[in-house]
């Protein structure tokens, strides 16, 4: 057949595309379970990191099973919903629903310094989603630890939210004011005035990511508000 | 096929790109990824191996197909072959070395746009037999990988004081521990990668005068 004819070119392209699609689809299917497992382990590592427990990729599963004693789902009224697995709740889907219908996962961890509650968070940065886990002491106000991650924030700027120095800032900050009202945490711009115990320094050059993170904390703590008040008293 | 598999001519396909026609230092291709993934040694090694796998396989496939590819869509065919292989590599990394795949993130995908690959397919695989194309692929990827590994080694050593994650500079040397030493933060950033590549080019040319242009 003439290699320069249109028919040949079209048939060639069609066959090639179908073959490549078949190969890629089967590879994706075969590797999917293993990839999902990796994502799951990473999530466990992140939850552990938010209660200041270090783990490696290999030890995360074991430590998680030992440390995270209880995990459950609550609704916006702070009532526990039975029969739901907190670990598999997809925050992306939950945040699309109105607050009253959301399933809100809570993880409990018994540490040397008492019982800690871990709350997953999800919000929007500059280029894509940001998410994280924040753990509170049992006064339901003092932050014990925080861990944030992102999909594609700018390295050196917005991506700094995933670094230790930024996450360390949150330790010991309070999300409730003296009267017990939820004020969350302000991520400060240079020169911005905010009470020290309710704020952390933002990232120079990462203003939109910083603001996104601040909004994420406020929104998500808000949805847990009833639960926080219940546990506090 | 009377030629032995490892004849002098074939071996030259392997060794030439490592030195005399190195894709990075002589042809100055694939620089962007050389800057991006070399802050530490491990991703540099993984990137080098991934490029090697993709380039050798793509070269062989294109060479096998070279007498059937319609001339008018040959670039598209090359791209499809590269893209398919890159996605396969990405999927495999994600399944078996998840932490590395997170570090490489977008750069694995960017192997597709690495000029070394298209260059080799177009200039070599389309006109040569599969075995020669395979050697050419391995050779060029090795030439690329060697530079990545050298750059990655120095950047991690001086930027983080470690090699492959193992601490090399003793803790007691650091200023924070009363010593005299401080890691050079510049080494972590892309500009120092470019300067390191520049130094390698300088060293290579001063030893191999043939490469100096008039």
From TrEMBL, chain A:
Keywords: Cell inner membrane, Cell membrane, Flavoprotein, FMN, Ion transport, Membrane, NAD, Phosphoprotein, Sodium, Sodium transport, Translocase, Transmembrane, Transmembrane helix, Transport, Ubiquinone. GO terms for molecular function: FMN binding; oxidoreductase activity, acting on NAD(P)H, quinone or similar compound as acceptor. Its cofactor is FMN. It holds the Pfam family FMN_bind. One of its GO terms (cellular component) is plasma membrane. It comes from the Bacteria. It is a single-pass membrane protein. PANTHER family: NA(+)-TRANSLOCATING NADH-QUINONE REDUCTASE SUBUNIT C. The keyword Transmembrane helix applies. It catalyses: a ubiquinone + n Na(+)(in) + NADH + H(+) = a ubiquinol + n Na(+)(out) + NAD(+). SMART domains: FMN_bind. Composed of six subunits; NqrA, NqrB, NqrC, NqrD, NqrE and NqrF. Its EC number is 7.2.1.1. NQR complex catalyzes the reduction of ubiquinone-1 to ubiquinol by two successive reactions, coupled with the transport of Na(+) ions from the cytoplasm to the periplasm. NqrA to NqrE are probably involved in the second step, the conversion of ubisemiquinone to ubiquinol. Belongs to the NqrC family. It is found in: Cell membrane. The keyword Membrane applies. This is Na(+)-translocating NADH-quinone reductase subunit C. The gene is nqrC. NCBIfam families: nqrC. The modification FMN phosphoryl threonine is found at residue 207. The chain crosses the membrane at residues 12-31. Residues 125-224 form the FMN-binding domain. One of its GO terms (biological process) is sodium ion transport.
UniProtKB/TrEMBL annotation, chain B:
The chain crosses the membrane at residues 45-65, 77-97, 103-121, 133-154, 185-203. It comes from the Bacteria. This is Na(+)-translocating NADH-quinone reductase subunit D. The lineage of its organism: Bacteria, Pseudomonadati, Bacteroidota, Bacteroidia, Marinilabiliales. It is found in: Cell membrane; Endomembrane system. GO terms for molecular function: oxidoreductase activity, acting on NAD(P)H, quinone or similar compound as acceptor. Coiled coil: none annotated. Its EC number is 7.2.1.1. Signal peptide: none annotated. It is a multi-pass membrane protein. Keywords: Cell inner membrane, Cell membrane, Ion transport, Membrane, NAD, Sodium, Sodium transport, Translocase, Transmembrane, Transmembrane helix, Transport, Ubiquinone. Pfam families: Rnf-Nqr (PF02508). Composed of six subunits; NqrA, NqrB, NqrC, NqrD, NqrE and NqrF. GO terms for cellular component: endomembrane system; plasma membrane. NCBIfam families: nqrD, PRK09292.1. Belongs to the NqrDE/RnfAE family. InterPro entries: NqrD, NqrDE/RnfAE. NQR complex catalyzes the reduction of ubiquinone-1 to ubiquinol by two successive reactions, coupled with the transport of Na(+) ions from the cytoplasm to the periplasm. NqrA to NqrE are probably involved in the second step, the conversion of ubisemiquinone to ubiquinol. It catalyses: a ubiquinone + n Na(+)(in) + NADH + H(+) = a ubiquinol + n Na(+)(out) + NAD(+). GO terms for biological process: sodium ion transport. PANTHER family: ELECTRON TRANSPORT COMPLEX PROTEIN RNFE (PTHR30586), NA(+)-TRANSLOCATING NADH-QUINONE REDUCTASE SUBUNIT D (PTHR30586:SF1). It is an enzyme of class 7 (translocase). Its main location: membrane.
